[in-house]
């Protein structure tokens, strides 16, 4: 049903919240009024009627906290280069062809300029952008981000969405606020946070809920999929999802398993956090914090449909991702930095490689980090996995030609990883607790990511695949040992 498509665009202006009818559109008033209540709803075919962005939204009224982004012109193809003509024609034939070529060039240039002017008049609609942020998850980074955003009085109160009812009970017991302490336990600040909204596996509101504009996802990888699947009716291309995940590959898996309609997928911002966070004592709303940076990279959209072409889709998505980055950059405690994809890899890959080695071996051997360093056989497996991972990274097209990534091949990098392992001392990997409880650790976004990329380029990945298989075997054995049925293993857990 495309009722709104019959209304002339010069006579009517659409808004996601209101409908304004201009002159000459009186006879279409009844048809437009019938469509208005369902502007934000998705129909059975996952189509919006009328489309999300067309016609453009109206300017926001003054005094509102919601900003309106600037308009961006449609993509205009570069001017066609003029036809080359000899500068000094030597014969009558050359002079004839020179005049003919000049005439054709003038005609092409005139047509191109006319087309450019017509294209420049068409603009990408100004999107009404919301400052409301929902934080999905309840781990240390999720609580820290909520605490940092609560410091900005210009933002609406941040809303946390949790999949553990325990966190809702603790909220009342701990003063309804998130408290930050330094590394020695001295209090720094405490800010009130709204009571988390509970999202269960069967989350289904009886009334229509508005679209979630800005989502920060910071939770256990196994909980991300069922949580976003429960919220998928409130997520579409107007939503921006900020992935606060130590590894890579979560975006691709979400698109495959949850958001399988490309035109309705959310916009993504991939993050890497160097903040050091830990629980303070037994409190769930209190954290110990060592400052760092939050590196943000906006992922360009790569989709199109019958209503929006690829370039327009990218420009529209860029407005959403830029707005999310601007909001996070305004929170001083986060120290947010907007970086390119190459710069994000420079910060993310070393930590990914270390976790894929240290945490994986610690969970497989069920031992502390210092025992890995003193075990000759374990260190031999460490060296083989490291060499294989670096070879995989070097073979991926995305990483080739990156001069700044050459440090991975230097002997100094391998030495730094071993020194970092020694500094962990008698600490245990947090993966061990997950394995003992029959839960899968996030190896699929570390070792698993390297394996998937190796399969794409046809590179050997035997050691990383072996490590993943051994982890899965340990998880399955723990489940059978304690006779834990798979369907009641708590997926929604951030502790």
Structural summary, described in words:
The chain is of the alpha/beta class. It has four domains: 3-67, no CATH class; 75-121, no CATH class; 130-339, NAD(P)-binding Rossmann-like Domain (Rossmann fold, 3-Layer(aba) Sandwich); 345-488, N-(1-d-carboxylethyl)-l-norvaline Dehydrogenase, domain 2 (Orthogonal Bundle), CATH 1.10.1040. The chain has 14 helices and 18 strands. Strands 11-8-7-12-13-14-17-18 form an eight-stranded mixed beta sheet. It has a four-stranded mixed beta sheet with strand order 10-9-16-15, covered by helices on one side. Helix 8 crosses helix 12 (430-436) and helix 13 (447-457) packs across helix 14. Residues 1-51, 54-90, 115-122 and 486-495 have low confidence and may be disordered.
Q: Which regions are unreliable across 5 or more consecutive residues at pLDDT < 50?
A: 1-51, 54-90, 115-122, 486-495
- Shape assignment: globular
Q: Give the C-level CATH assignment of the largest domain.
A: Alpha Beta
**Sheet with the most strands: spatial strand order:** 11-8-7-12-13-14-17-18
Measured between the Cα atoms of the first and last residue, the distance is: 47 Å
Q: How many extended strands? A: 18
CATH superfamily of the largest domain: NAD(P)-binding Rossmann-like Domain
Main beta-sheet annotation: 8 strands, mixed
Q: Give the count of helical stretches.
A: 14
Strand fraction: 5-15%
Our count of domains comes out at 4
The Rg value, from CA coordinates, equals: 28 Å
CATH architecture of the largest domain: 3-Layer(aba) Sandwich
Question: Level of helix content?
Answer: 25-40%
Chain oligomer state: single chain
CATH structural fold name of the largest domain? Rossmann fold
């Amino acid at each position: 049903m495309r009722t709104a498509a019959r209304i002339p665009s010069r006579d009517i202006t659409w808004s996601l919240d209101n409908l304004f009818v201009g002159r000459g559109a009186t006879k279409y008033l009844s048809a437009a009024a019938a469509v208005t209540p369902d502007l934000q709803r998705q129909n059975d075919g996952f189509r919006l009627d009328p489309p999300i962005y067309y016609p453009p939204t109206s300017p926001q009224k003054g005094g509102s906290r919601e900003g309106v982004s600037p308009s961006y012109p449609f993509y205009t193809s570069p001017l066609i280069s003029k036809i080359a003509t000899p500068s000094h024609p030597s014969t009558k034939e050359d002079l004839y062809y020179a005049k003919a070529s000049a005439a054709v060039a003038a005609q092409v240039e005139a047509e191109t300029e006319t087309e450019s002017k017509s294209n420049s008049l068409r603009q990408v609609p100004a999107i009404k952008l919301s400052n409301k942020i929902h934080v999905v998850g309840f781990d240390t980074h999720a609580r820290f981000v909520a605490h940092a955003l609560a410091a900005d009085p210009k933002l609406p109160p941040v809303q946390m969405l949790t999949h553990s009812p325990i966190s809702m009970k603790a909220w009342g017991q701990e003063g309804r606020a998130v408290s930050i302490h330094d590394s020695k336990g001295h209090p720094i600040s405490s800010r009130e946070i709204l009571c988390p909204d509970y999202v269960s596996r069967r989350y289904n509101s009886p009334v229509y809920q508005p679209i979630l504009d800005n989502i920060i996802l910071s939770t256990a990888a196994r909980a991300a999929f069922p949580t976003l699947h429960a919220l998928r009716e409130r997520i579409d291309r107007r939503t921006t999802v900020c992935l606060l995940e130590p590894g890579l590959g979560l975006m691709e898996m979400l698109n495959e398993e949850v958001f399988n309609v490309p035109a309705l997928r959310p916009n993504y911002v991939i993050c890497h956090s160097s903040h050091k966070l830990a629980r303070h004592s037994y409190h769930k709303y209190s954290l110990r914090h060592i400052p760092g940076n939050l590196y943000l990279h906006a992922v360009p959209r790569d989709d199109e449909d019958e209503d929006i072409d690829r370039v327009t889709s990218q420009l529209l998505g860029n407005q959403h991702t830029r707005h999310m980055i601007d909001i996070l950059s305004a929170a001083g405690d986060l120290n947010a930095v907007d970086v390119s994809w190459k710069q994000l890899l420079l910060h993310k890959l070393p930590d990914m490689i270390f976790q894929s080695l240290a945490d994986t071996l610690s969970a497989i051997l069920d031992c502390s980090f210092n025992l890995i360093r003193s075990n000759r056989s374990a260190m031999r497996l460490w060296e083989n996995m490291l060499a294989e991972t670096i070879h995989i990274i070097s073979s991926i097209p995305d990483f080739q030609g990156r001069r700044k990534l050459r440090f991975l091949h230097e002997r100094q990098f391998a030495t730094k990883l071993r020194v970092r392992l020694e500094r962990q001392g008698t600490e245990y990997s947090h993966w061990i607790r997950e394995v003992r409880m029959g839960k899968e650790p996030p190896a699929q976004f570390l070792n698993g990511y390297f394996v998937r990329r190796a399969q794409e380029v046809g590179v050997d990945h035997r050691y990383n695949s072996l490590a993943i298989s051994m982890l899965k075997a340990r998880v399955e054995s723990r489940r059978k040992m304690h006779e834990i049925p798979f369907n009641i293993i708590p997926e929604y857990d951030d502790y």
